[in-house]
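#struct-pred

JT: dropping the chains for the assembly here, can someone run the whole complex?
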Amino acid sequence: MSGGDEAGRLVRPFTLTGGRTRPSRADFTLITTVTAVDPPPERAVRPQPEHTRILRLCARPVAVAELAAHLDLPVSVVVIMLCDLLEAGLITARPPRSFAGTPDLDLLQKVRDGLGRI
Amino acid sequence: MAPDAVKILIAGGFGVGKTTMVGSVSEIAPLRTEEPLTVAGLDVDDLLGIEQKRATTVALDFGRITISDDLVLYLFGTPGQQRFWFMWNDLAIGALGAVVLIDVRRPESSFAAIDFFERRRIPFVVAVNGFHGRHPYPAAEIRESLALPTHVPVLLCDARERASCRDVLVALIDRLIADVEFQPSPTS
Ligand SMILES: Nc1nc2c(ncn2[C@@H]2O[C@H](COP(=O)(O)OP(=O)(O)OP(=O)(O)O)[C@@H](O)[C@H]2O)c(=O)[nH]1
Ligand SMILES: [Mg+2]
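RK: done, full complex below.
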């Protein structure tokens, strides 16, 4: 059946993840920061209620783990919805700082200074 | 512009005070997510009791410290029970390092955590939680009994005290800084 995917989307069962169990992208870690695109792209599809909730929560940058906690949903479920939002151009995702081997001294010094202030 | 995010793991055996430590230094009340256990996670440990086997989710606690406008530090309390360790691998990816928390009354419950970070060469410090603020053993004695190399800092702490937990984190960062500064650059 051609176009099955499109049709599937239209009659999508009312589940948060549309029956999928795996994110289509692996680029959401617990501390990936997501931010709603504001204003949303003009041609964006109308988000579902749970998606809208996410968009509200990430009006300011927020980590995936925080989103999951606030939504009271497993991270794995939230990530699947984030994939939808990312694909729709409704959010941006910033991956955590990656250290190829060792973190750099500037970063460490910054963390140390920051800790000194708490 | 979204801030940069880094993380540190707070690890150790069951009930040693990990969540308490996260809460002591976090600027927000510790948050919690529940993950459904995958089948893959269930065969990790065959030492479990029947009751534990029935658990279907694993909880993850974390806190946040805003370091600056453009840098946020997240603290993740790793699940204490050994059967959840399949999650540690994921958690450890990209972490700056770890704090292995020890309950001074039953240090053996954190041995496996020490092994975990040693094997993966993830930098860590050992923080001895005195429970009731009592520290019957000096740090040096604990280091010796745990057979820890001298480059692993051992600190006595109180997981309920913000300043005490902050000092533990600072010790970890100092250790990391020392690693960077004294490591000969990888030329061969
Ligand atoms: N008196 C005292 N109680 C503590 C201290 N640290 C933790 N506790 C208590 O010990 C219990 C376990 O502490 P948690 O912080 O939940 O320990 P945990 O390591 O997160 O436990 P799991 O996540 O279940 O492995 C709680 O009831 C804490 O209130 C301490 O330093 N002194
Ligand atoms: Mg805990």
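JT: nice. The CA atoms of residues 62 and 76 of chain B lie 4 Å apart. The pocket of magnesium ion (ligand 2) is lined by residues B 18-19, 61, 77 (CB under 6 Å).
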